[in-house]
């Protein structure tokens, strides 16, 4: 492994950790990262300053750290690879739960994008990792998994990558509006959502989220829908300002 | 409000008799058939109830567990059949409701389809209207609940909508009977071709539209005789509808191949699967029509929205849900118990209802049959009627969807979602209507899982056994313990069933309708028709089963059976031999377990059974087989295989739990 690669793997680890923590906490504290990665707070601060310069995070010494748009893209990509790998190790290689995480951590940095897509297809576009966390959407410009399944490897370059940040609808905050951009899942799920008006390009906002991983209530097409969390984590939107 | 409805119905009857008497006009005397179609919860069943009154038959679609409601109405000298199609959002997915609806419309060809739409969510409703229009049926659009829309600040211009859709549009407030007369006038005119639907087709964007036309021309040139309109078939093929593709494939491979190529062309242009493109464009048309026809003044925060915030509040919401569920349960129990006691003593006054085991065969058979009627009247009806009434009110008001919303995550533990809570609660009153009401769930798997769990729910009759045997002869605490064991068994088996029954849990996608004040008369009519259909199923079984088992016992056929069962009853469960007979009786009606013992040994049961035997007998009889009426309803809803499996699971569980409990109690000298 060259120095450069080592550096980027290190960056990826940091961004991944920050992303994971930020799922539960708005502002990520240095101490939390240091605990997660098992690195001293001083070295973490050092690294965060570097990341801030590279425009991956916004870092202020006392408040904590937040991912920038760029940072989010890298963080989601690596998180996605990590969680897909965990699924692969468990579902296909039948490894025991306690080795999944460390093994996936090792593999994620060298997993190519083509391999990531193949993995996703083999696993039939899974939505959650073994730890029940949502796997982020892929960064290819597909609107549904159906399309991805029907494309050959060489055609994928034509499709291109998306620059926008996609978030599942339940991560929309109060008063935020999103444009439905990607629906994950098989034909049946997509079909049901389309029939209920959740079509690609439709604008959607969250009214409320039931506690205890309950359903999400959204406003779409002048009506209100309750969507179970299992389905909601497969509907991805782009924020509309 | 009731007053208005009565006035309205009164008026219609009056007009009807006038035309009948005069008979002068050239009223064509052919019966017409009207089908009501539309999304769920738009007031379609209110329209249906208002039109047909109590003149309805509720049954099943042939071979399907989809409720079929049919009613008759006499309007201006016409006999009119009204069919209430299930509430659906689209013709595309493969739910039974959607297939039933589209096959009915295509093959039975009703004279006119009344498409009921909710004025306050026009865009979503028009998505379905467009698909109906594509089916090429004579239709009328009924824009319902315009009062609720007005409260939200939405006014619908029906003329504009009419112009856009090319079909007549009538505005109504069905719950108050407003506009229904006009609706029927327009509908009959359409049925008799006096008023025509415009032949215009609703066009998609050019890339899609051209391909629909190409495919349509190809289908027409082939003369395939599919039963469905060719343009509709063309659209469905481009949408990759599996049912339609199979149908067409059996007649012409060329068409299917052409459709496949055209669909990939659409996919190349739009970079989206063609079914998604078509759904998006259809919603686009719906959006255009809706916005063209509706005037949205400032959005008002209505009372209903404030109520909504309370009911789904992250803390208070649970409280409200508990209140609704608990209230429904208490209401059913208290009212049910009151009437049950009242009716039992009324019957007892005229005729003894204890099982008879001696005397001539005729009197025994008669006594058994009579006992069956009494069981139905005193045990099922008193619980079913108040429950259905309250359920109907809660359902129509929109509270039920909120409860389902709040309870969704809890129900996931046994593979069901929020909506399944309702049937499970009902199971505490009586299993029979509980199983029937599992129809509110989407998939057969969910219905089956819920029904299975319900067969363990401690219903009113089981409560009688627990109280009568254990609370009286052992102690109240042991009775309570049995109740707790029952609920634990129900939950555990629910989880096991989840693993055993194949398939995935379908997630929740549910429209959150606006709150509204439910109509008591609609609820009453729904209650009555639901109860009526239940009576037809349950009563004959009760009567025949009850007579048969008493007869069999009287001619001495059950004693050998009891002896045959002795290894299980005596050795494994530690009960006396006669327990076999008692348990068989209990299969007819759970509370027969108790009555039978009393009939055999008198009221001093403590002399016959030890406390442990009371506990074990109550426990086994509680779990061991769904009663005859429950089995009947299971059979009707799920077929032989499922019913037999459920019954076997019940028996095995009962014997397993009973045997283990006997040994534990005996070993640890718990009693």
Task: Briefly say what this structure is.
With 241 residues, chain A is α+β, with helices and mostly antiparallel strands. Chain A has helices at 3-22, 30-37, 41-53, 69-92, 97-108, 113-122, 145-150, 156-159, 187-195, 229-232, and strands spanning 57-60, 64-67, 166-168, 177-183, 203-209, 216-220, 223-227, 235-240. In chain B, the strands form 2 sheets. Chain B has a 7-stranded mixed beta sheet, with helices on both faces. Chain B has a two-stranded antiparallel ribbon with strand order 7-9.
Detail the poorly predicted runs of chain A.
none
Strand order of the largest sheet of chain B: 2-3-4-1-5-6-8
Largest sheet of chain A: 6 strands, antiparallel
Largest interface: A-B, 42 and 41 residues
What best-fitting shape of chain A do the alpha-carbon axes yield? globular
Please identify the structural class of chain A as seen in this structure.
Answer: alpha+beta
Radius of gyration of chain B (CA) equals 29 Å
If you consult CATH, what is the topology of the largest domain in chain A? Arc Repressor Mutant, subunit A
Tell me the CATH superfamily of the largest domain in chain A: Winged helix-like DNA-binding domain superfamily/Winged helix DNA-binding domain
Mean pLDDT of chain B: 80
Oligomer: heterodimer
The topology string of helices and strands of chain A comes to HHHEEHHHHHEEHEEEHE
End-to-end CA span of chain B: 60 Å
Structure report:
The complex is a heterodimer of chains A (241) and B (671). Chain A has 241 residues and is an alpha+beta fold. Chain A has 2 domains: 1-136, Winged helix-like DNA-binding domain superfamily/Winged helix DNA-binding domain (Arc Repressor Mutant, subunit A); 166-240, Ferrous iron transport protein A (FeoA) (SH3 type barrels), CATH 2.30.30.90. Chain A has helices at residues 3-22, 30-37, 41-53, 69-92, 97-108, 113-122, 145-150, 156-159, 187-195, 229-232; strands spanning 57-60, 64-67, 166-168, 177-183, 203-209, 216-220, 223-227, 235-240. A 6-stranded antiparallel β-sheet of chain A has the order 3-8-4-5-6-7. In chain A, strands 1-2 form a two-stranded antiparallel sheet. In chain A, a hairpin with a 2-residue loop joins strand 6 (216-220) and strand 7. The longest helix of chain A is centred in the middle third of the chain and has 24 residues, at 69-92. By secondary structure, chain B is of the alpha/beta class. Chain B has 3 domains: 2-191, P-loop containing nucleotide triphosphate hydrolases (Rossmann fold), CATH 3.40.50; 206-296, Helix Hairpins; 316-667, no CATH class. Chain B has helices at 2-22, 44-52, 96-108, 122-134, 146-151, 158-165, 180-191, 206-222, 230-238, 242-249, 253-270, 274-293, 303-311, 316-350, 361-397, 399-411, 421-426, 431-436, 444-454, 460-473, 476-500, 520-554, 558-572, 579-588, 592-601, 611-623, 628-667; strands at 32-38, 56-60, 67-75, 78-84, 112-118, 139-144, 154-156, 169-171, 294-296, 509-511. Chain B has a 7-stranded mixed β-sheet, with helices on both faces. In chain B, strands 7-9 form a two-stranded antiparallel ribbon. The radius of gyration of chain B is 29 Å and the shape is elongated. Residues 1-27 of chain B have low confidence and may be disordered. The A-B interface holds A 141-144, 146-147, 150, 159, 187-197, 199-202, 208, 210-215, 217, 221-231 and B 89-90, 92-93, 120-124, 127, 240, 267, 271-273, 275-276, 279-280, 283, 287, 290, 312, 314, 317, 401, 404-406, 408-410, 417-418, 505, 507-512. Strand 7 of chain A pairs antiparallel with strand 10 of chain B.
